[in-house]
User: Fold this.
Amino acid sequence: MAIVSSRARLGEDVVIGPYSVIADDVVIGTGSFIGNYVTIDDGTTIGKNCNIFHNSSIGAPPQDLKYNGEKTKLVIGDNVIIREFCTLNRGTVAHGTTKIGNGCLLMAYVHIAHDCELGENVIFANQATLGGHVVIGEAASLGGGVLVHQFCRVGKHVFIGGGFRIVQDVPPYILAAGEPLRYAGINRVGLKRRGFSAETRTMIKRAYRIYFRSGLTRQAALEKLKSDLPHLPEIEEIVHFIETSERSII
Assistant:
């Protein structure tokens, strides 16, 4: 009772529920499950062992008035879980592709707009919503109802409390909450669970104490990070993220 184009390419052991519609230019990897009433539009590639639950819209054209029917893509990695009523749009000519990394979990009613990029193992709770061109670093977690302004970046291993708005860049390894959104400490529990040593967590905390709490200007704080702290990859990631921010830091 599903409608599957003869031009779609399905791997072995793919299951498609009733009333789902699979368009021509679609690739679905081995072992993936597509629930009932799911629409998967042209330009969508889905990896292996993905689970897309009922009533989701995957790869629909972007909600962007500049879009003029050009051929763009949505690329979903392996082992991704997309729960009920999610909407994921493909890219525009500006970037061409919306990307979802391996191992992501998108809970119900999540919206991913055009040209967004999610790293691996990202978790979005219910109703998290991204504007266009948003970049989310690996293993970041967004609480329920979080709204992200277009062109914002969220760093690796960040945790955002539920219900807040992101209108500036959120640097890696931190907790953020409040209105306006602000630094609320490092993501200590998440970092510990993911194997970051106590020494590394201490250095990350020290770095952000300098940047957010010292009263120094942005540039002076960055120079102090470079001169006073060990050259750990995590410290270099923090410095690079801040230095390349275009929307400024929370």
User: Anything to note?
Assistant: The radius of gyration is 19 Å. The longest strand covers residues 182-186. Residues 191-243 form a domain with the Udp N-acetylglucosamine O-acyltransferase; Domain 2 fold (CATH 1.20.1180.10). The chain has a mean pLDDT of 97.
